[in-house]
Amino acid sequence: MMNTKTTLVVKGWGCVALLGITDCEIAAFILELAFHPSWNTVSAAVMLAYLVCTAILAMTWAISDAKRAYDNAVKAGYVTLTADSRLVTGIAIDCPWRWLVILHIQLHPMLIDL
């Protein structure tokens, strides 16, 4: 059985992967709608490379945006920290981009005391 920190990291990376795959699927759908008549002229390898790059870029964006949201939430006081400012003790309900702050914490479970 996995420990709690490992479970959080797996859950965080699962969310990041889901965001990347969803973005990739939307891009494939739009390309299918736009280029359907000439679809035979597009190489499958080129499409695969484009969609893989799209997924990687979406995942990179999600990770960097989660870090930025966490940093901004700490500066604005939406995230409460311990006295030594090392561990998160709470996240305000009205925190903007709260799900990104939670995603950052899931990717970095050393920020909470487990």
Tell me what you see in this structure.
The structure is a single chain. The protein has 114 residues and is mostly helical. The chain has one domain. It is 66% helix and 6% strand. Strands 1-2 form a two-stranded antiparallel ribbon. A hairpin with a 6-residue loop joins strand 1 (79-81) and strand 2 (88-91). The chain starts with a helix and ends in a 7-residue tail after the last helix.
Compact description:
With 114 residues, this protein is mostly helical. The protein is built from 3 helices and 2 strands; from the N terminus they run H-H-E-E-H. It has a two-stranded antiparallel sheet.
The count of helical stretches stands at: 3
In order across it, which strands form the biggest sheet? 1-2
Radius of gyration: 19 Å
Task: Detail the poorly predicted runs.
Answer: none
| Helix-residue proportion | 55-70%
Q: State the distance separating the first and last CA atoms.
A: 16 Å
What class, by secondary structure content? mainly alpha
Number of strands: 2
What share of the residues does DSSP label as strand, in percent? 5-15%
Shape: elongated
Instruction: Give the biggest sheet.
Output: 2 strands, antiparallel
Whole-number total of structural domains: 1
Q: Helix-strand pattern, N to C?
A: HHEEH
- Taking all residues together, what is the mean pLDDT? 87
